[in-house]
Amino acid sequence: MTATMKMKQLWRKAACWTAALLCSGPMSSGAPSFPSSCVSTASSLRPACDACLADTTIYRQSRRTQRLWGGYAYPGNLSTAYEYPDSIALTVPEVHTRSARRLAEYLSTRLETEEDLVRGIYIWIARNIEYSVYADFQSRNVIYNEKEDVQQTLDERNGVCRQYALLFRDLCSRVGIACQTIQGYNRNGEMLLPTPHEWCMAMVDGQWYLFDPTWGAGTMEDYTFTPLLNDRYFMLSSAELLATHMPFDPMWQMCEPPLTYEQFDAGASYAGHRFLSTAEWEKKLAAYLAQDSLARLEGVVERMKHNPGMNKLVENEYLLLYSQISTLKRKQVVDRFNEAQDLWEEAVDLVNSFIRYRKNGFKPVRSRAETLAILSSAATRNNRAAALVDAIQDAPDDCIEKIGRLKQRIDELAVRIEEEKKTLKTEEGS
Q: How many whole angstroms separate alpha carbon 276 and alpha carbon 269?
């Protein structure tokens, strides 16, 4: 028996004693009693009183809240199948919660399986991060640092769905669990919710599951957030979560054909739609992740455009993504221009150094290879600059003139380099 198994057994035995001693109801046998399997089976832990035993509904508050883990009441609206990882997540010492690295290390040294790890991450986030009802939303066109956002979430202990999802993904990645975030919107019964939403997808034991730690943290009504830790949105299949969560990008539905926005809004089911196998989804996801940011956005916009029935929320997202594409294209043009100009300037410096060396009578004396290398290095940089300029497409109107001038300078320098090579050859022959 491993040390970890012994620790779990001791914890479970202590948990049963705590449950019995704290239970205020009449005992089934008149005295504290414990299931014979409590030492080896996590799901066997139950309070000893009749009143508590009568209510075993997973998602309702019950007298099971009397069980305490390190000062926390074990929530009665959590599944008892995960009592051990939940107890770890609910009792993480404060010193280990101020950085994602330390929090991930704490959980990973106490939870062994991927399922327990992802459970611990979900529960810690849902329990400790409060939803910010009046948060300031940052434009996606602004340069965005996800690492800083994750740290700020841990520092302030609050955020909106994006912060919940980013923190979940960051912690998963630190413990070796593949995770992606998904943007979309929601339906509650027949009502569409008015704001975009963000949730997660993670691979657990070779299968992809969906998670929404934001909705696992509590409820909001009349602009008031009420903390209510729950696991209704923990490790769901696509079919389960897609009943209420609609990705903006149809690809993240993981089915063929995807449900249209209009069908989702009307409450249609996925009957007749085939969900992709793990292998099929892995192939599609790998192709998506291999693209750069611009290619990804262009693909999302194209898929959204061909998925009928956009509502106002989807239309706004489509326009936002289109604006992001324009911003990224401009940034790509500017970055390529600046890189080309830097290379051209380096080439100019090398040519000037060669000219000074030639005018000084090729002193101090160098080998022919060393002398020729100066011009060769200049030519290499100038050619790379030319390739970058030629690769610029769809340049904004205010950039076209600058790009044209740089291209002319690159061409002129190429001619000068060839002239200097001829001069060098002539000097060597005289």
A: 16
